[in-house]
Design a protein that fits this description.
Length: 92
């Protein structure tokens, strides 16, 4: 399991994500994000950055995300205009 988490983290960290989500679901103890051209798995943290909102209970299909390569924060833009920021678990 640890090796899979590490591979998921590396793929996510390298990714440059921007656009609407076409799918989102719980996967491998994390969250699978599906965009038009990318599918990644990340492990979001709940914190003051996102008003302690759990990612899977906050995000909806069609909402947009932004995360640049090696950036340590994912930005979720809600349909109502609210913005939430999520850091994520890092694996060695």
């Amino acid at each position: 399991m640890d090796k899979r988490n590490e591979i998921n983290y590396i793929n996510f960290a390298k990714s440059n994500l921007k656009g609407p989500l076409i799918g989102v679901k719980e996967y491998a103890r994390g969250t699978m994000l599906q965009l038009e051209k990318d599918t990644v798995i990340f492990y979001p943290r709940t914190s003051k950055l996102n008003n302690n909102n759990i990612f899977l209970y906050t995000v909806e299909k069609g909402e947009s995300i932004i995360k640049k390569t090696i950036q340590d924060t994912l930005i979720l833009k809600k349909k109502n205009g609210n913005i939430f920021k999520y850091t994520f678990l890092k694996f060695p």
